[in-house]
Amino acid sequence: MWGGRFAEGPSAIMREINASIPFDKALWRQDIAASKAHVAMLGNQGIVTAADAATITSGLDRIAAEYEQDGVPEDWDLEDIHMTTESRLAELIGPVAGRLHTARSRNDQVATDFRLWVREAMEQVDAGLELLQRALVNRAGEHAASIMPGFTHLQTAQPVTLGHHLLAYYEMIRRDRSRFADARARLNECPLGSAALAGTGFPIDRDATAKALGFDGPTGNSLDAVSDRDFALDYLMAAAQCSLHLSRLAEEFIIWASQPFGFVRLPDALSTGSSIMPQKKNPDAAELVRGHAGRIIGCATALMVTMKGLPLAYSKDMQDDKPPVFEAASLLALSIAAMTGMVADSTFRTERMRQAAELGYATATDLADWLVREADVPFREAHHITGAAVKLAESKGAALDALSLEELRAIDPRIDERVFAALSVDASVASRASYGGTAPERVREQVAQARRTLGLA
Ligand code: ARG
């Protein structure tokens, strides 16, 4: 392509280190679409003749059909998807192929292709996350009143409802979707026509190519446009944050599925067995979601480090932008699908959850609150009295509401028989009816709201 300037060809090492075709062939659809938009504009502007534009367009269509059918050929000498397509175009239509690259550089070409690819990836993630939200909301609706222990420090804290717990993840995913939507809005400016770095002397119409490719308009600074990868970083950072939510959810399932907890039976379809221990059913899919989050965060870190020292405008380091984005995209899509299946198809063992809440002194705060409300005891003193009651119950291996009234009154005589109504886990969750709280009625409202948001109601 640049033989004019060189006395000898690249060494084998140069060819290998330079070749991006093994991975950037994933951009072929975007590359063809952007080339078609570009050549249509060149034709409309009279920069190439209408006849040449038509020849180039049909050549590009033929190449697209070939790639669709046989895949993209990988010739390291052709470096990347852009050169691969251009050289095939020359084979098909002859020297007129050389007119396609008028008023364009691979620098604005790759920036455009990659934006198109990332835009589509954002849309796919959003669709996957919506399915995950549906699964969460459906299960939350089923379990609006199922009681489980709520934890802080992974120690039993207060009873909550399983529906409330699942809706916590609905909220996280809601924020993830909004981050991807923000990123998409910022991404949607078209670099095409920025050429190598300085713009071009040809009378191009950047509004036309931007519009043809579904962008809101052209980028405003050619130097920035060819060297900006913020859109890829925005995507990766949103992906990283999303992956850590998925990882936390996966971690919950891993813990809940362990025998001492026994809160959930994972779907067989998302579990594996052991080659030696016949009883085992391992949460491998959840563990891999947790593992993949580490890799996705690594992808975001990799591109940040690639970009941080680069002067304007394009440097070849930027060719390394694609592998981390492609890797993160496929890991994230799999993780979302795995967690959607896990939420939708797991069996929640609600009797075990309830029992764990009852045995874990989860209503101790309710006893303290009762003393404040009904006996006008200052909260700090009520906390102390309740601590003594828990200590006694624990020494007897019993639940709080299994203590007799005499035993409770021996700790503090202001306690009377009405206290037992406050000590049940049902009374406890029902009482937490503040907005956003765990009471079944609040959870049902949140489920209804979420169903409206998702278009399910
Ligand atoms: N393959 C390159 C990349 O992915 C695009 C081409 C820019 N090359 C250049 N030598 N200016 O970044």
TrEMBL record:
Asked if the keyword Amino-acid biosynthesis belongs to this entry, the reply reads yes
Keyword Heme attributed? no
Compartment annotation: Cytoplasm
Q: Where is the Fumarate lyase N-terminal domain?
A: 4-298
According to its UniProt record, the EC number is: 4.3.2.1
Q: Which reaction does it catalyse?
A: 2-(N(omega)-L-arginino)succinate = fumarate + L-arginine
- Coiled-coil ranges (or none): none
GO term, biological process aspect, one:
L-arginine biosynthetic process via ornithine
Q: What family is this protein classified in? A: Belongs to the lyase 1 family. Argininosuccinate lyase subfamily.
Name the record gives this protein: Argininosuccinate lyase
Q: What is the lineage of its organism?
A: Bacteria, Pseudomonadati, Pseudomonadota, Alphaproteobacteria, Sphingomonadales
Identify the coding gene.
argH
